[in-house]
Amino acid sequence: MKKVVNNKAWFLVLPVVVLVAFSAIIPLMTVVNYSVQDIFDVNNAYFVGAEWYRDILQNPRLQDSLVRQFIFSFFVLLIEIPLGIAVALMMPTKGARASLCLILLAIPLLIPLNVVGTIWQVFGRTDIGLFGWTLTHLGMDYNYASNPIDAWFTVLLMDVWHWTSLVALLCYSGLRAIPDVYYQAASIDRASGWAIFRYIQLPKLQSVLVIGVLLRFMDSFMIYTEPFVLTGGGPGNSTTFLSQTLTQMAIGQFDVGPAAAFSLIYFLIVLLVSWLFFTTISHMDKAK
Amino acid sequence: MNWMAWTLPTALFFSFIAVILICMTVYEIKSPCVERKGFLPIETTRGDRLFIGLLASGYIHLVFVGLSEMSLFIALGISFVWLAIVLRWG
Question: One of this protein's Pfam families, by short name (chain B) (predicted)?
């Protein structure tokens, strides 16, 4: 059969190109334009070169929130990934109990972010919240509104509560995809539970885990709503993460120039990390 | 286009990026590239190397701005050399 060369189909992609240009590329270009100018109004804009970038990179407030952001994402991954794997391993494999577990796990994922923040804000209060009340009556000096360590603990616990399900569901689907013959071979070899996990389940989970790590890293790195509702970034600045600092700067103070420079630096960090994960995933696939 | 607050340097920057992309497209059509392994730890296509070169250039500029008071034209020069090296031997 003769192959027909017809490239007209490319025109069908055109609407997407126009949409993406309108919604992503042109706004991003505008941000770049804003980041090199001091803008007072439409007619009063002065070119300042890299001054905002220098301000941003040398601003201790932003450096602190960047460090906090990395620490937060690190702990999120450190807790949620092993916990998610453990939950997935302990879930029933079939029957009504499996369906029940899946539904229960999916519930936290369905709750809107600001509602999660509100739930935990009430839950953690020492006067009317069950969690705060219990801790206080167990003799612990807990107050997320005034103690930075308690605030961090609560924000992390909230994130773990909200998102571990995602990792667990991903791992669960990965585990179900392992053919039975692997387990049969393992039982013939009388492999221990640990050996089965280490040499069968974990390698088979690799690709879903990379996706899970990527999703959890990106989400936690861009977290805004939950800590904003729960602690408002406080006490002091102790739970103010990057996006909240950015919002304060861009909307609170209306410093468009520095906020634009900050956005682009933020964008470069996210781009680098996403690219690293993407490359890892695609090269793992090739290795297979 | 007034609302976009264009300046000459940003216009030059984006034109440069656009020209690179057009040139790469034409080059790709004329002689399609194959993945190969250079000094970078992974196999890369031409586009991968361009992306790596540009992203690294961004970081080179940020390091210059953040850690030194030196002129950014030095960073620009280093970036060009780096971009050429990555595209050729990466």
Answer: DUF2160
Chain B residue at shortest CA distance from A51: B65
Peptide bond just before A235 cis, omega within 30 deg: yes
Is A33's CB within 8 Å of B5's CB? yes
Complex ipTM more than 0.85, yes or no: yes
Question: CB contacts < 8 Å between A and B, how many?
Answer: 55
Q: Which residues of chain A does B4 touch, with a Cβ-Cβ cutoff of 8 Å?
A: 26, 29-30, 33
Class of the A58-287 domain? mainly alpha
Closest-CA residue of A relative to B4 is A30
Strand bridging mode A37-41 / A44-47: antiparallel
The domain in which residue B4 lies consists of 1-32
Q: Is B11 in the same domain as B48?
A: no
- The two three-digit tokens of residue B25, written as one number: 């497209």
B39 and B62 inside one domain:
yes
Residues B15 and B44 in one domain: no
- B13 & B51 share domain: no
B21 and B41 assigned to the same domain: no
How many helices and strands (H and E) does chain A possess?
14, 2
